[in-house]
Amino acid sequence: MPAPPPADPPAGAPPVAVVLLSGGLDSATCLAVAQAEGFAVHALSFRYGQRHAGEVDAAHALAARAGVARHVVADVDLRVFGGSALTTDDLAVPKDRDAAAMADGAIPVTYVPARNTIFLSYALAMAETAGARDVFVGVNALDYSGYPDCRPAYLAAFEQMANLATRAGVEALDRGEVAVRIRAPLLHLAKAEIIRLGTTLGVDYAATTSCYDPDITGAACGHCDACQLRRRGFVEAGVDDPTRYTAGA
Hints:
Elements (H helix, E strand, L loop, with lengths): L15 E5 L4 H12 L3 E8 L6 H13 L3 E6 L23 H4 L12 H16 L3 E3 L15 H14 L1 H8 L6 E3 L7 H10 L24 H13 L12
Parallel strand pairs: 1-2, 1-4, 2-3, 4-5
Helix pairs in contact: 1-7, 5-6, 7-8
C-alpha cells in the first residue's frame, strides 16, 4: 500500500520549511531568514565529492547553533560525471578573475552540472515527507559567478515543475492552491546587503566557509570567485571579515 501523505502540523505548531544549507555565507543567511519568519527548519546539506568538503562541517556547526528541527546530510557523488573544477582535480579553480570577468555572462568551470536541480529535487522529497510547503535556497543573481541555476527564470520553472511532480502539488492544484514554494530571499540582494541582513539576524559568519579551493587546514585561498565576492561584500557592508585566509592571501 502507498504511504499516507504527511500529516499537517498540530494546531499552533510552527510551519515547516526545508532549507538547503551548504555551510556558506548565503545559505547561513537563508537559514536565519527562514527562522526569523517563524519556520521550524529541516536543513539539508550534501556531500557530493566537492573539493571544498569542509563546508559540510560548517553546515553541521551552523545547524547545531541554530537548533534546527532536523539536519540531513545526503551523499550524492557528482564526481562520476565530472565537468567541474569543484569535483575533479583535472580542472583548476579560476583565481583572481576581476569583477568584469565574473559578470560577463560566461559560465565558469566551477559550475557543477545540474547541481541545484539535483539538490532542489532532494529538498522537494524532504519537504513532501516533512509536510513543508516552503523550500529555501540561498541563490543570488547579483554577486555570483554566472551559474544558470541561480537565475530567477530557473527558480520559477522549478517551482512550477515541483507543483506538477509531487502528490502534494497535484492535490493542491486540484483545489486551486500552490503546494510548494521555492523561496530565494537573497536572489536580488548584493553580497553586502546579504551580510548586513545576516548580521542583523545574528548570523555567525566566522562559522561559514565560501572558498572553492581551501588549503588542508580549511583556510580560504582569497583568490577564487567565491573568496573575492565574499571579501568585497564585507568591505562594502562595513563589517569586519572573520574569514581565515591563507598566509598572504
